Amino acid sequence: MSEVKSILNYIKSIIKPSKIIEVKILDPEVPSRLDRQMESIVKSPLLSRDLSWLTFNQRVLDQAQKEELTIFERLKFMAITASNLDEFFTVRVGSLYNYLDYGKERIDYSGLREHPFRKKLLGSIQEFYEERNRIFREELKPQFKSNGFLIVSYDQLSRDQQKEADEFFDHTVFPMLTPMVYDQTHAFPVLLAKNLILGVVTQNKKRGFSSNDPDSRKISFIQIPNNLPKFYVVEHKSMILFLPIEKLIMENVQKLYRNVKIESIDLFRILRNGDFTLEESDDIEADFVDEIKQKIKERKVGRLVSLTIEKDLSPFLKKTLKGKWDIDDFNILENKELMDYTRLWQIVKHPEFKGEVPMSRGAVMPLHFNREKQESIFKTLKDQDVLLHHPFNNFEPVLQLIEKAAEDPQVLSIKLTIYRLAENSRITQALLRAIENGKHVSALFEIKARFDEENNIKEAEKLQKAGCFVIYGIGGVKTHTKLMLIVRKEGNKVVQYAHMASGNYNEDTAKLYTDIGILTTKPGYTKDISEFFNVITGHSEPQNYQYLITSPRDMRASVIELIRNEALNAKAGLPAGICIKVNSLEDKETIEELYEASKAGVKIKLIVRGICCLRPGRIGLSENITVRSIVGHYLEHSRIFYFHNNGQPKVYGSSADIMVRSFDRRIESIFEIVDDFLKKQMILILRYNLMDNVNSYELGQSGEYEKITPEGEEFNIHDRSFDISAEEVEEASLDDFFERIALLEESNGDA
């Protein structure tokens, strides 16, 4: 691995990533196996999905290094990288072990087989982990004291503070701890993922200690309950002291081992495989829910994929854990600072520091939303379609619509899809009131939403008991689309109100994620959505939709057809261009079509927040494609598709990314934007994404990202999107961006 790393570093030092076409390693000292691996990685037309994700988490880590941010903002981003990495281990590394443990073949997009890829992936994670520890130690910790707090050891407390801390341990912590011994007469205990765990090695006094006698030592484990605070907090004059709870426990651990000699006490943390599949039933929903509940239990004892340890872990304990869990040093991360950076949220959210993380600007009302007249939202939506761009426009119009519908005597029914809900969700409360008021309520709950399964089952059962018609998804696929339909009787006719979106019905994340949604009464939309719900609830075959494109039926084919149309226009000498904004770009068939369009001369601009398996800028393959990623104050989550269409742009919003799972294993929807003003709003959003020079990174064909630095005036999309005017919308266009690429290529050709 070190040889591969040194080779990569050498390549980067002599060739700019965007210019690498093919590299052959000629050093005779490097084994031919490494030669072939390097050639495979560099020559592959695709980038690794998992390695691409790691570069995304590195971009999040970059935010923690921004000196212009407060220390609390920077700690927030450190915590986010930690929760991101936890999920990556649980899902993606877990998925890799589903192949490794059962001897199944797997070839990564980069060309590596499962075993060498495991070493490459876990080696890259270790490098990231070490760099993050360095940033925390060298760049963040030195700023703690000047900002009014410290993370301290037990010895740094005064005697009075130690006494108070010990009393907290005795009265609160001690009763919650349960040592679990492992020896010849006790089975290895079930240790929970993400908990901090103490491994205590003790000596058996009755036998007498001998390092050669395996029975002279015992190992026991103390799991630190997750409902304990991560820090014991001491307020001292103008300084707040945060003592990691495990340090307090370690200082008092002898109270759990009276008359026993402790040889060593070590802290560690584990992550398990949480990537499970389901044998779903199309017929018996109760059995399906029970199976989900059983799989959640199995996740708690899944295959270990990561072990984080402190420096100088007891060799006896380490050897035992490695053998028990069938892991090697690639699975082990050594921690020199905090064992779990997600605990930094306790510091960031401490009441004393309220206001230190700047609040987002107040969201503005959407353009052309009737503010002056005190009309009902039903009247407003009958007059016009409304585009919502969160969090710049708040989520209130959606909540207002569903809450008004719950109370309005003219509303007959409410139907919607639910993927992730907010805690104490206003959506759930509105649906319960609607049921109480005699309305028909149908909710398609996706109880396979990863890590939200338990909460979704609980919320679904609550609504079901109240009288809601609950559908637990469709067997074999996951329902990820975001659609809502409200049916209202108005005089002698029935009017339907629809909402379509890229994001969840979650008022909390709507303040943090950028998403788009439209509210409309257009019959074409409402007929499509009504048909969609009939298909879901009745398992019928859908007719052709007017404005919706759905998966798994025809989404990939439709997107490819739109790409091919641009290629045909380019070949015919007509203007052509594609601009797509998604979270992830991984579907191989779509990537190949984008390559073909690039070869045909189509100018393609991609805005991909996270995973991107497309390799841009390669001569003869993708020289007309650029890829950028935006990572900043808000989490980019909106999906927008733009096709130039010879000057008559076709623009779509979407719940789906360009991924195999989105096209083949999920129920998703892409919805065409037909209102001219809304279409221009979507184009302006894309334009702002391409103009941003504060939060943006450019992807090179090597898979490395380069931070875009402002040339002249800064343009921060996360600030500027609060101040959009109707005039800007009316003038919105992407044509100059496609022309700019052409001019750049001409100038490069002349040079």
User: What count of helical segments does DSSP give?
Assistant: 22
Rg of Cα set:
28 Å
Counted beta strands: 27
Largest sheet: 10 strands, mixed
Share of residues in helices: 25-40%
Mean pLDDT: 87
- In CATH, the architecture of the largest domain is 2-Layer Sandwich
What's the name of the CATH homologous superfamily of the largest domain?
Polyphosphate kinase middle domain
Examine the coordinates and then state which fold CATH places here, giving the name of the CATH topology of the largest domain. polyphosphate kinase like
Number of domains: 5
- Helix/strand structural class: alpha/beta
Separation, N- and C-terminal Cα atoms: 40 Å
* Parts with pLDDT < 50 across at least 5 consecutive residues: 1-30, 278-286, 741-745, 747-751
Gross morphology is: globular
CATH class category label of the largest domain: Alpha Beta
Strand content: 15-25%
Question: What features would you describe in this structure?
Answer:
The protein has 751 residues and is of the alpha/beta class. The chain folds into five domains: 1-36, no CATH class; 37-141, Polyphosphate kinase N-terminal domain (Methane Monooxygenase Hydroxylase, Chain G, domain 1, Up-down Bundle), CATH 1.20.58.310; 143-353, 2-Layer Sandwich (polyphosphate kinase like); 377-545, Endonuclease, Chain A, CATH 3.30.870; 550-750, Endonuclease, Chain A (2-Layer Sandwich). Helix content is 38%, strand content 21%. It has 22 helices and 27 strands. Strands 14, 18, 19, 20, 21, 23, 24, 25, 26 and 27 form a ten-stranded mixed β-sheet that branches. α17 (588-599) links the parallel β19 and β20 (603-608). α4 packs antiparallel against α5 (114-140). The longest helix has 30 residues, at 71-100. The two termini are 40 Å apart. 40% of the residues are buried.
